Amino acid sequence: MDNNDMYNQDKAGAEQSQQQPQPEQPQFQQPYQQQGYYQQPYQQPYAQPVQQNFYQQPYDNGYEEPVSIGEWIITILVLMIPCVNIVMIFVWAFSSSTKKSKSNYFKASLIMVAIMIVLSLIVSIIVATTGASLFMAF
Fold first, then answer.
1. Can you tell me the distance from the alpha carbon of 2 to that of 99, in angstroms, rounded to the nearest whole number?
2. What is the pLDDT of residues 82-121, one digit of tens each?
3. Is residue 5 part of a domain?
């Protein structure tokens, strides 16, 4: 068979394929096949790259060391000393070197003392005015 015959056969086959549409081949989907553990690529779900900045300070999770029991005992003993206790409450409340929890405790204590003073002034004014009016009535 020479090249011309092959060309003619290809040409005739092309004409036939143009004239007669070929039926579509059905497309079958592969059934779901469960792969075994050994066939899956190795995955490590918890291993994520650690991004470390070498210019940061040592690890700090945002929390500071709590006030120890010994520090609280010393604090209570200092608060038993008259006049020193008032000064030390302000020092511990507003000092930057005091631990945050201890500072917050004394700030809350000062707020509560201020509220009690205001309430006692209001009550004493009310009692004084009603007492004066009762005294005048007799």
1. 100
2. 999 999 999 999 999 999 999 999 999 999 999 999 999 9
3. no
Q: How far apart are CA 43 and CA 33, in angstroms?
A: 19
Q: Which of 68, 88, 66 is nearest to 77 (CA)?
A: 88
Q: Is the pTM of this model over 0.90?
A: no
Asked if the structure places residue 57 within a domain, the reply is no
Residue 13 inside a domain? The answer is no
At a CB cut-off of 8 Å and minimum separation 6, what does 102 contact?
67, 71, 75, 92
* C-alpha to C-alpha distance for 111 and 119, rounded to whole angstroms: 12
Which domain covers residue 85, as residue numbers? 69-137
From the list 56, 54, 46, 102, the residue with the least C-alpha distance to 79 is 102
Q: Tell me, yes or no, whether 41 lies in a domain.
A: no
pLDDT tens figures, 11-53: 555 555 555 556 666 565 555 555 555 555 555 555 555 565 5
